[in-house]
Design brief:
The complex is a heterodimer of chains A (245) and B (363). By secondary structure, chain A is mostly helical. Chain A has 9 helices and 2 strands, in the order E-H-H-H-H-H-H-H-H-E-H. Chain A has one domain: Transmembrane di-heme cytochromes, Chain C (Fumarate Reductase Cytochrome B subunit), CATH 1.20.950. Chain A is elongated, with a radius of gyration of 21 Å. Chain B has 2 domains: 102 residues, no CATH class; 196 residues, no CATH class. The chains are: A mainly alpha (245), B alpha+beta (363).
Chain lengths: 245, 363
């Protein structure tokens, strides 16, 4: 029987922030759909209520985004460590994680990334969150703030090329976030069980399997040899040995 | 015989000349007033009333503006009938009752909320009347703000209307407060009233545009080929031209037919009245260019300008109604891209579920 370790991965403020964001972003996507396609989407009753709800949810998400930034940057001080991929992540981690999702996962192998509170995202997550949290979210919030105050901030709107440029950016960025949402929710079900990655976001604790020490791996394909890898990826035989322990 | 005839004709001509000479001298002696002289009626009146040096205040009539009106064609005496012979003698001059000619409008107006609150001249200057197509939205609203205080109007609209300031800036009051079946988007060239970045954008005058074009034909500023029709391509060129950065097009949604039945229409409080009217209603637009005489000339714009993604009307967008179809498609593709992983990976995951179940049993 493998030894099970519970790690405290998601602190309470992060969990509150995550679910506030989740409700906010889903509300924004749905109200946004009604605002753009009012004759087909009538989920929130009147157009005005959709707009007021969109504005309110937008402000909540924008404020929550700022809190996220200050929490990780100033309170925890590990923003870069968590979100910026390292050289090793870019050289090997990305391909390793991609291989896991495309092949190893179907074979039934566990994820090559083993989260710790200071390194809780795998290299693909890091890259995706880097784009989402440092490009998409700030841009969609800024364009949203401009659209919420067109008269007051007209000068900034003119500087960026006009209202339509801002509208187009806001719409396409929102579509990208919506696309990310589908991918994000699906990837969250790829743990050992469908809820394995979702539970830590509710309770804070993740159940972790113990792995052998990292060791050099065999070539995954000619020319590419993931270094500092875990035992179960060094070969199927070793893997079954390890699992048999 | 012939000599007598010739003599009589010359005598007649001399008499006529003498009579007309006395008449002219008479009119001149009365200070240019020529009431009853239908030949030169307006000129004689305007001799004084068109001269800011001679008359003051509301008695002054801008000759260029007046010449453009239908009222100028029927002549001063048609409305100011029965002016005293001693004019100008301090007696107030008679004024026509507008409803004598404009009976229909008067009946319509009598049913409106304005009835009894403002006479025709409360809004219209009869010496400067312009058709709705010849006047800018900003000027229409200036008529209203003569009585309705702008700040109070903004405050009362803001009680129920999101972004009230923006709405009031993009709509002539009559768009919501009178009924019309159709609407079109009229675009006015606006420019900064000061060279600094924060300067307010104001409707550009004929002279402003003349300076910008360096030519008398200001039409070519936007209508590149001068065919009196602005294509989408010409509109995009103007809007993205860095040489005209200080000039922008300010769009206003304006009723196609104008009535005098001023009311508070409850259906206008429902945002979907405009925001759902959709692409079909947003096809018609015009660029209104200022003329020398202070009026505006509307030049037709290719259909669909306000629905263009970016450079058709960069500053005019109505949520819901003027969305761009190509951007919708790109957005849908992006969202569909987000579904590739759940659907594709999910299917393979379902097919290979035994691999994982087996390993989970081992543990």
């Amino acid at each position: 029987m493998r030894e099970k370790i519970m790690i405290y991965l998601q602190p309470t403020p992060v969990r509150i922030w995550h679910w506030l964001n989740a409700i906010g972003i889903i509300t924004l996507c749905l109200t946004g759909a009604q605002i753009r396609f009012p004759e087909t989407v009538t989920l929130f009753g009147s157009y005005k209520s959709a707009i007021l709800l969109h504005n309110a949810a937008g402000l909540v998400v924008a404020v929550s985004f700022s809190i996220w930034y200050f929490f990780y940057k100033l309170v925890r001080g590990n923003l870069e460590k968590l979100y910026v991929p390292t050289g090793d992540d870019l050289r090997h981690g990305l391909v390793r994680q991609l291989l896991f999702y495309c092949f190893w996962y179907f074979r039934g192998d566990p994820s090559p990334h083993h989260p710790t509170p200071n390194n809780k995202f795998n290299p693909m997550q890091k890259s995706a969150y880097l784009a989402v949290m440092f490009v998409l979210m700030p841009m969609v919030s800024l364009t949203g703030i401009l659209l919420l105050n067109v008269s007051v901030l007209r000068e900034l709107i003119l500087m960026s090329g006009g209202l339509k440029i801002i509208i187009a950016m806001h719409f396409l960025l929102a579509c990208s976030l919506c696309a990310f949402l589908f991918t994000h929710v699906y990837l969250a079900t790829l743990g050992k069980t469908a809820l394995a990655y979702i539970k830590p976001m509710l309770t804070g604790w993740e159940e972790e399997e113990e792995h052998g020490q990292p060791q050099p791996a065999k070539e995954v394909f000619p020319g590419y040899k993931p270094v500092r890898h875990y035992a179960e990826y060094n070969g199927l035989e070793q893997q079954s040995d390890h699992r048999g322990n | 015989m012939k000599t007598t005839m010739k003599y009589q004709i010359i005598r007649l001509l001399l008499t006529l000349t003498l009579i007309s000479g006395v008449c002219v001298a008479n009119t001149a002696a009365q200070g240019g007033y020529s009431y009853g002289n239908t030949a030169g009626k307006n000129e004689a009146c305007l001799n004084c009333h068109g001269d800011a040096q001679k008359v003051k205040g509301s008695s002054f009539i801008d000759q260029t503006q007046f010449a453009h009106t239908t009222h100028a064609k029927i002549g001063c005496p048609a409305c100011h009938d029965g002016i005293s012979k001693g004019h100008p003698d301090g007696k107030s001059s008679p004024r026509a009752n507008c409803q004598e000619c404009h009976g229909d409008i008067n009946n319509e107006y009598a049913k409106s909320n304005h009835a009894g609150k403002a006479p025709c001249a409360g809004c219209h200057n009869p010496h400067k009347v312009e058709t709705p197509r010849e006047i800018s939205g900003e000027e229409i609203n200036r008529m209203c703000s003569g009585c309705h205080d702008s700040y109070r109007i903004l405050a009362s609209h803001a009680e129920w209307l999101p972004q009230a300031d923006l709405h009031l800036d993009m709509l002539p009051c009559i768009t919501c407060h009178t009924e019309s079946r159709n609407y079109s988007i009229i675009m006015y060239v606006v420019k900064r009233n000061s060279p600094s970045r924060g300067g307010k954008m104001e409707t550009a005058t004929y002279n402003d545009l003349k300076t910008a074009v360096k030519d008398d034909n200001i039409l070519t500023l936007i209508d590149g080929n001068g065919d009196n029709y602005i294509s989408l391509a010409e509109l995009r060129i103007f809007n993205s031209d860095p040489n005209h950065k200080s000039l922008r097009l300010h769009g206003m949604m304006t009723p196609e037919s104008v009535t005098h039945n001023f009311r508070v229409l409850d259906n206008r409080r429902n945002c979907t009245f405009c925001h759902v009217s959709g692409p079909a209603a947003m096809q018609t637009s015009f660029v209104a260019l200022p003329e020398k005489n202070g009026t505006f000339r509307q030049v037709a714009v290719e259909k669909g300008a306000v629905l263009d993604a970016l450079y058709g009307t960069p500053d005019f967008y109505m949520m819901g109604a003027t969305r761009n179809a190509s951007l919708n498609m790109i957005g849908m593709f992006i969202i569909a891209g987000g579904l590739v992983l759940p659907v594709g990976h999910g299917s393979l995951r379902f097919l290979t579920r035994k691999n994982r179940n087996g390993k989970e049993h081992q543990s």
